[in-house]
Design goal:
Helix content is 48%, strand content 12%. By secondary structure, it is an alpha+beta fold.
Length: 312
Amino acid sequence: MLEGGYCYGPLDPVSNIIVNTVWYDQNFPASKQVTLDMISTTCLWRVAARSLYGLVSFLCTRYQNMSPDQALQQLLVAKCKPDNAVLALVEMQHEAVEGSTPSTSVIEGYAAAATAAFHCNPLAQKEFIGSSDVVSKLRVASEVLHLQDGHPLSCQDLEFLSMSLLKCSSSTSKSCQEEDLAPTKIRKSLYSYIAQCSYRFWGQHERVTSMVKAALDKFNETLVGGSPHLGFILSVVPMSCIWSEPSMDGEVGGYNPWTRDKYYHTHINFLAVCEGHPHDPPRLFFAECGKDGDDTCWCIPTAPQKPDAGMF
């Protein structure tokens, strides 16, 4: 998802993220599988920003008289659905009607979107989401799985979607699967930077996982049976607005290298699974953890909300 789960495509944004993620995993599988309890918040920001670049580039390529600011405005009106944004153009005031005539094809728009989003193979993705035959198959799969309803997908649902996407594989994506990519030689400075980022992430991974488990343990003390346990940590946001002070501590710099502020609180969103009901959908929790150890951690479950395309 972090590498190819973009929200642009022929379906609604949430469905596009699911479809693009499964397709990317099929065609560009990771060379090494790593077990994680936490997803990188920075990587989430990156894929969200790249999705936005793709959406804006799609519209600006299709309608060359449209500026990026106008594209953003139309995406807000259309809740980030390019098809609806196109329809909204017709309803704009008369001076903008001339710019609502497409200058390029949809497939060229997706090529621009994939390029702007730094996709590893823009040509393969363009062929995947730009083909009319593929689009019809994706819409059928979306209707069968009720992707827009916001309910969790089962393993059977994902298997059905994977089989549907295998039928949509293009010649370009198949050739990518057959290629044996040789390792790329990089500069020592870049290797050192990557190693440093990896070290910081795993350090944060260990600290945050410990804090979340402590918060869950305190929450479980108030329950009778059915205690939830950690499923996956979704986002970590250090809070420094009021409670920060400069620090030259190396551990502080390793935790958040972009600032020397010492964070007094950290807000964390995570999923938890009930031990007695492993097949139930995971619950979303919010946690706040202080800097003074596990005793300052607490968490509460949040009310589920149906995903809104405008939130992406």
